[in-house]
Amino acid sequence: MVILEDLRYSRDHMWARLDEDNRITVGITDFAQDDLGDISAVNLPEEGDEVVKDESFGSVEAHNEVMDLYSPVSGEIVEVNQELVDSPEILNEDPYQDGWIIRIDVPSMAEYHELLTAEEYEEYIKEIRGEEALDDLEEDDEEDEEEDE
Q1: CB atoms within 10 A of CB 27
Q2: What is the pTM of this model?
């Protein structure tokens, strides 16, 4: 499982990145996509929609299971990754780069700074899944890397 140091995380398994233009880019974590399995559909909001921290703004579907997407911060959606509609598998393949979901213009950085750091998110995963589950995910990543070589 990949947890990037330069991102912040929510307990709803969403990541948030503070961009150079002081907007926040949001996506699902590697843990979430791995837990869901092959993502087959994405339901996205519209540009201009307002999002509220910890409230649903869309969903992803995998194996007849739906995961609601909860915004880690409040603000106005200024960009939506429409590529995910036709290619939802991007969320599985590259959740932290090409798999971004929305960009948000936030009125304040306070909510962003309240999110979990990478270290805190890793501890949270251990709490909810146990140390063994985290070890299993790390082993899966090592196997994936070996297959790529």
Answers
A1: 26
A2: 0.85
Looking at residue 1, what is its pLDDT?
A: 79
Residue 66: closest CA among 103, 28, 96: 28
Q: What is the DSSP letter of 73?
A: S
Stretch (H or E) spanning 134 = helix 118-148
Kindly report, residue by residue over 29-52, the tens digit of the pLDDT: 999 999 999 999 999 999 999 999
Structural domain total, the chain = 1
Give the distance, in angstroms, between the CA of residue 131 and the centroid of all CA atoms in the same chain: 21
Q: Work out the number of other CB atoms within 10 angstroms of the CB of residue 99.
A: 24
CATH of the domain at 69: 2.40.50.100
Residue 147 falls within a domain, yes or no? no
Arithmetic mean of pLDDT, 85-97: 96
